[in-house]
Design goal:
The protein is 47% helix and 8% strand. The protein contains nine helices and seven strands, in the order ααββαααααββββααβ. The protein has a three-stranded mixed β-sheet with strand order 6-5-7. It has a two-stranded antiparallel ribbon with strand order 1-2. It has a two-stranded antiparallel ribbon with strand order 3-4.
Length: 267
Amino acid sequence: MRTMHLLAGLALAGAVAGAWAQKNATEAAIDEYRAMLADGNPAELTEAKGEDLWKQKRGPKNASLETCDLGKGPGVVKGAFVELPRYFADTGKVQDLETRLVTCMERIQGFNGTEIRKAAWGKGEKANVDALATYVAGQSRGMAIRVPQDQPMEREYYEVGRRLFFTRGGTHDFACATCHGQDGKRIRLQDLPNLTKNPGDSSGFPAWPAYRVSTGDVWTMQHRLNDCFRQQRFPEPDYGSDALTALSVYLGVNANGATSTAPSLKR
């Protein structure tokens, strides 16, 4: 009997070792693939499109976005991304990058913000917002995240975002924290960063927008968070909702000090 237990234990150990070897080999292959694309991230095409859109005269008012204030003054793009979301006095709200861009497109160019928000992902002017966000993010690449908490509403949004992050619900009784609330978690071959603290330069908030190899397009943070709710079997929040902005504030403040790598490359 002891011999049988020993043989069973050896077999189990061998199976575990084999599984780990296969996992490590797969991870190595994925890392190699990412390295091959690192110098030619397809997000660069979206970034270039966004730069063109920023400078083009468009919309009913035939105006460019070069007077859009992203928090550092009209037309200033460099360094804006790493300080968003933030409070804007002209709207009386805390806004993330996408919602602020939609505000500028409405006020400066005359676009219908409601139509943009209702459009499908990657379609119409919403696709242009994605490109603009990718361009703006790229202008802060290599800079430290420093999402502000100076204004009372910014602190309120952080607290709301924190509560949303830990709220469980849906058919699976999941929360954001189910996957991203502890160190060392993973789903299959995907490492899951702990987003309750600084996740590092290439994980979580500092990495989005990002080109997703699995979908063949660029996703912004709004899109990433929306899909997280879908995967949790929650009702998907509206584009530009205060809930998504609050979550972005929570994640951004937690990531303060990390280096922005957006637009990055994701699986």
